[in-house]
Amino acid sequence: MRNKERIVITGIGLTAPNGNNLEEFRHNLLSGVSGISNMEHRYIGTVHAGICKYDTLKYQNKKELRTSTRAGSISIYCAREAIADAGINLDPALASRTGVFIGTTEHGNVETENEVYNISKFNYDVKYWTHHHNPRSISNNPAGEVTINLGITGPHYCIGAACAAGNAGIIQGAQQLMLGEVDLAIAGGVSESIHTFGIFASFKSQGALAYNDDPTKASRPFDINRNGIVISEGGCLYTLERLSDAQKRGAKIYGEIAGWCINSDATNPVLPNTERQTDCIIKALNHAGIEKEDIDILNTHATSTKMGDIQECQAIRKAFEDSSRFPYINNTKGFIGHAMGAAGALELAGNLPAFVDGIIHPCKNVDELDPECEMPNMVLREPVKADVKYILNNSFGMLGINSALIIRSL
After folding, report:
1. Which among 195, 247, 310, 352 is least surrounded, fewest beta carbons within 10 Å?
2. What 8-state DSSP symbol labels residue 326?
3. Are 109 and 199 contacting, i.e. CB atoms less than 8 angstroms apart?
4. 259-408: CATH architecture
5. Would you kindly state where each structural domain of the chain is located, as residue ranges?
6. Per-residue pLDDT, 1
7. DSSP codes joined into one string, 78-100
8. Is residue 335 classed exposed, middle or buried when 0-12, 13-18 and 19+ CB atoms within 10 A define those classes?
9. What's the whole-model pTM score?
């Protein structure tokens, strides 16, 4: 990177449908444990979903939960867990130099849908509309709730970047540290998407909502019989610091943020652009100042939609076509579904322990690989042992936003 400041990850806090901390999450990825189950949804009925089961009362009381949002609650849990994991003492001086940068797919839909439904029972009389609506539904809510809960007085905001938001939050945190705007960044992504029926209805109307008799087999990226997305909630926030600061306090370091790229398709609101995805990967490699052969793991965005998976595979093959060594390819959505704004941050976390243990977790539910998704070094059913120095994390989203994030072992 051109800037002399090196940015590292020193703490991880997460909740996923199959784990509420990194150790549990990682264990379940290596053991093939799915987090997908059935839930009943208003107007739609039974749907498959990834539901998080973290302790909501660990860092909030019941009154706070009543006035909070699910995205805010997830954010508070993840931020607190990350700070504890990093061993950081968030005193007032550091709190004033701490920034909170949280990527989200959308926010406010849950609250609006629920409140419209509630007043429908009272002939739409708005006197029954809650006065908590505005702070609940504004776009900076999840990050703002973290600052209130932790007493953080530095900057906070949310990054709306569709399903590339998890990567975008991490990149934003790194950039703010490099600029000297903050000394500590709490950054990543969160999603409360399963609590809005609109997202299920929309994917269902598009024919892109997954169905399987066994919900744990519904999310199946790259499989020839995949039939759509499983929507999930979740969150993953990191503490990011300058390397010099982390070393000064003797912090454990998960990895260094080596490079990134965010670009736009500028072609279609929904359909991905393979050429732009390829360009995003190559520019991230250039930003990191490394060769294609240096990448050991490439975690795919693949959502389990027919064309989305195929087009990403085309982009990856194109990006690495002249490489003498193809990276190991894996995917996390077969285990947890699509956690939307949290997806990229969670999927990166699941691979970071490979820097230490040299184990690459496999994809899940690839019973028969789609020939159009075939690539070298796909980790399909069992974990693979390898030396891991660099991880490339793909995350793409609607309106044609693409992100590629590269992490280096130290």
Report:
1. 247
2. P
3. yes
4. 3-Layer(aba) Sandwich (3.40)
5. 8-248, 259-408
6. 40
7. HHHHHHHHHT----HHHHTTEEE
8. buried
9. 0.97
